[in-house]
């Protein structure tokens, strides 16, 4: 009864959405914003203990998400505006950010990644015994090349005139530590270029060493710092 009553209340207040109490996907749209979450109702003994419900609606370009957690009497509400998502328009469609009105400033970003491998593989890299040659130099060059091609790999990235790209690769106890430094004078940042550089460098290390160790793991691809731009500077506090 509680499930049916709750479903009826939702339908009365939001008739264009058309929720289903059996957990099915809503088939309609509300203000052209796709309702992609399912309504899931578990057997209810206490009406105050609702199963998870995520209700998306759109009003004046605002998407409101209300989460009712199962077996928790208090409910939490989270609100965000579509304008806060720079790559999404007011109808929920992806878009490329228009940077025409942004000021050209100096931007810099540092990213890092880890390539974790067996001790025997680490020793082979340190002693230059890998069958394909030096994986560290190959990774450095691959990372530099990848940074310059980021806009071709990431759909909504802007092509940027990079003024400097450097990728460092060193042997560590766990494997290979990679770090990229990327700079530009542009209207948007180079975080994606820095992240792309270390990611492709890590993949290159795998390719160079896979004959010795197919269990190599690429881990902790992350932004370490960035400067410039409207959002201000950022430095990762966790340096482990």
Could you characterize what this model shows?
Helix content is 24%, strand content 30%. It has 5 helices and 10 strands. The strands form 3 sheets. A 5-stranded antiparallel sheet has the order 7-8-6-9-10. It has a 3-stranded antiparallel sheet with strand order 3-4-5, with no helix packed on it. The protein is elongated, with a radius of gyration of 25 Å.
Key terms for this structure?
240 residues; alpha+beta; five-stranded antiparallel sheet; three-stranded antiparallel sheet; 24% helix; 30% strand; elongated
Radius of gyration: 25 Å
Distance between the termini: 53 Å
Largest sheet properties:
5 strands, antiparallel
Number of helices: 5
Taken from the alpha-carbon principal axes, the silhouette is elongated
Average pLDDT figure: 75
Percent range of helical residues? 10-25%
Poorly predicted ranges (pLDDT <50, ≥5 residues)?
9-82
* Strands in their spatial order, largest beta sheet: 7-8-6-9-10
Number of strands: 10
Order of helices and strands: HEEEEEEHHHEEHEE
Structural class: alpha+beta
What is the strand content? 25-35%
